[in-house]
Input
Amino acid sequence: MTESVIGLVGDRKTAQQVRGELAKLGCADRTIAIFGEEDADNVVQELTERGHKEDVARRYSEAVRHGGIVVTAEAKDVDRALEVLNRFHKSPEELIEGHQQETARGQSVEEELRVGKKQSATGKRLVTEVSEQEVEKPVRLREEEVEVERNQAERRLSPEEADRAFQEGTVEVTAVRERPVVSKEARVTEEVTLRKQANERQETVRDTVRHSEAKVEDTKKK
Output
């Protein structure tokens, strides 16, 4: 049965030396792993998966970010493996504090102008509105009336005329009157069409970008 062991050294050359000695002790090469600064984001996960506590893994991860090199392996003879690691071992706190005291970092930063495109909607809406207005239009109307005319007469009737005069009958005269009749007719006076057309235009975008440069200056003490 094997058990995971872990150690921290100050540089990659030493880490390779530790790797060789662990291999001599019988640690399988596939179980020996070396983690440097480029692996800092994965150190916590790798160490916890190998059975180490999360707080220990985070301390070693922080040490790696400050230049330390983690060496871990699966060993059958744990005591002898730890003896090898302890000969070269540095504590996480030692590496972190030493790195903070000896290292000062700066960086040059430059902004780059990137121009993208954003769509916005615009257009026209066709709205039909109905309104009413009062209009007048003259029309000539014909109107008939029946007039009654009575005239005094003094004339003798012949027997035949008298017979006809005393016959009952009806005479009807009809008078016609015109009255206005209103009807409406719709006519198209204008046609409106909305049509979409796509065009392209070129626009120059101007803005300012910042640039910072890290410079090293000599300091003089008075």
Summary: The first strand starts at residue 3 and ends at 9. Residues 3-101 form one domain. The chain has six helices and five strands. Residues 93 and 208 are 44 Å apart (CA to CA).
